[in-house]
Amino acid sequence: MTLVQALEEAEARSPAVLAARARVEAASARIGQAGLRSNPELSVEVENFLGTGDLAGLRATETTVAINQRLDLGGRRQARVTAAQAELTAERIRLSIARADLARSVREQFARAAVARDRLRLAEDNEERARELARIAQILVDNGREPPLRALRARSAATQAAADLEAARAEERSSRATLVSLFGMTDPVQSLSGGLIDLTPRLVNPGLSLEMRLAEAERLVAESALRQEQAASRLDPAVGLGVRHVREAGAVALVGGVSLPLPVFDRNRGNIEAARAGIRSAEANVANVRASVQVRAANAVTNVQSATTRVEALERSAIPEATEALRLSRLAYIEGRASLVELLDAQSAYREAQAALIDARLAQALATAELGRVAAQQDPL
User: Which InterPro entries does this entry report, sorted A to Z (predicted)?
Assistant: First the structure.
């Protein structure tokens, strides 16, 4: 599996992204619901039955069948639609954030898994070198060219290298399993291939970040909530039209009416004040997010530049020098011009240089993944 394939698998399978998409669909459905008028009410009223005197029995019954409809005045419906649209915008941004977070997690875990693979290869190489060195040391001891203590030290180094190899194998298997868990899968991928980085880092505009867009969207949601509460405080009349049948007279007539709630006790002031407080909270969050994103973007750029410089320095000088030093030390040891201690020191320096390069590449990949996350609002990096 390559990094590109891992990103595609995660996008298609991730439970977090699927859940975010479902929330977008729900928010979209609520827009249509918000635009509907309230349902009319059917009422049936029967008067003057089972009374006394002239009203005994059903002779004087009057039956009225009417339809009543709330007018939804005062901008109620528009306020509901605006609020639903604002929430849909916020949910779409949250979906983008979920996808960006997932992509960063995949890039980071792919890098860790690839680095675990490289560490395993280094451990295999080190174990093979240690075994070969132990064999050569024993031959030299048998020929009287080295004291027995040197062979013991070489065997001890080989044993330690074998233990390190087993630990590297376990770490490599675990990292592959963790990677596929991001896809909602349990069986680890068999192997990884390709590079650790699929992005070309560049400067970003913090003001266009997904976090800033979401903070602004949440402010609009809060403002639309205030408009909803203000609309709810306005008078909402209802009109009705019906037909009345007077049984005794055998006559039919139309009946009309208007009802209007009187805002004597409840004027929705509490909800209005709560909505205004929500706006103040959203505005404070916008300022906080703006400052946070600016620092995050600057740090991400700095970390990528620093990690890239370190990788280039190790590849340019440290690794070639350690490799050549190990080659010369091994030849000198076999020819008797260097001691076992000098060869072990050269092997240790080579191993440390390789490990430093692996760690530097991991740091570069993680920093690039974070920069890609910060820049997720722009075109692909």
Answer: MdtP/NodT-like, OMP_efflux
3-state secondary structure of 60: coil
- Please report, for the chain, the start and end positions of each structural domain, with discontinuous segments joined by +: 3-260+269-374
CATH 3.60.40.10 is right for the domain spanning 3-260+269-374 = no
Rg over alpha carbons for the chain, rounded to the nearest Å, is: 38
Grouping H, G, I as helix, E, B as strand and the rest as coil, residue 339 is: coil
* pLDDT at 261 exceeding the cut of 60: yes
Give the span between the Cα atoms of 111 and 179, in whole angstroms. 10
What are the pLDDT digits (tens) for 224-245? 999 999 998 888 899 999 999 8
Question: pTM score > 0.90 for this model?
Answer: no
Cβ(188)–Cβ(109) under 8 Å?
no
Main-chain phi, psi angles of 35, to 5 degrees: -80, -5
Tokens 């909803």 belong to which residue? 228
Angle between helices 319-334 and 340-374 (to 10 degrees): 160
